[in-house]
Amino acid sequence: MAKRTLPKKPAPKRARILLVDDHPMVRERLREVIEREPDLMVCGEAEDRHEALAAIQNTKPDLVTIDLTLKSSHGLELVKDIRQRYPGLFMLVVSMHDESLHAERAIRAGAHGYITKQEATRKILLAIRRVLGGELYLNEKLAGRIVAKLTNHQNHDLSASPLDCLANQELRVFELTGQGLDIRQVARALHLNGKTVETYRARIKQKLSLKDAAELLQFAIRWSNKP
What we know:
CATH topology of the largest domain: Rossmann fold
Number of helices: 10
CATH architecture of the largest domain: 3-Layer(aba) Sandwich
Number of domains: 2
Mean pLDDT: 83
Radius of gyration: 20 Å
Structural class: alpha/beta
Order of helices and strands: EHEHEHEHEHHHHHH
CATH superfamily of the largest domain: Response regulator
Low-confidence stretches: 153-159
Strand content: 5-15%
Distance between the termini: 75 Å
């Protein structure tokens, strides 16, 4: 009597993840963590906005992880591009930058979650699965405040940052200034020229009511060391 062969069960579909980060070692670490999972896979990598948009078109990911500091652009601009071109694509920002300053901006730009690189190795899988499941992923301390602001459930936020008035690039200049970088170093880090950085610094001083460069530096350093 012939032995009946049972049909094989189809392999479960693995969610496709595109990694966008300008540091190869970070991408390698994230790839190692993600590829161990039976339901997830890395379908591609990119280090700047141009490569990322091309990779999305070629690899058709389900989710993109995005660093805010890319090789020749800012991650928030990429988030906005993706939201406009691929409105159904999930985005998770994975960044070294202070989430109290950047998470809300990332969500407003179109991201579906924000996690710091310090937490990424431990919580990246949780964050990815939450976002793929249609949830917003944020640090617990920030989630309530940000969701309330985004849904207009509160008219006045007592914990609002004085830096909320700064544009994204102005905030980056402010942060780097607080790290002790001079105008030339900031320009190099952000791929700008010195005069452009000086213009940003002038706008920051005006918006924050700071008298001069020394006061800007003191304020930026105090803020960067804020617990």
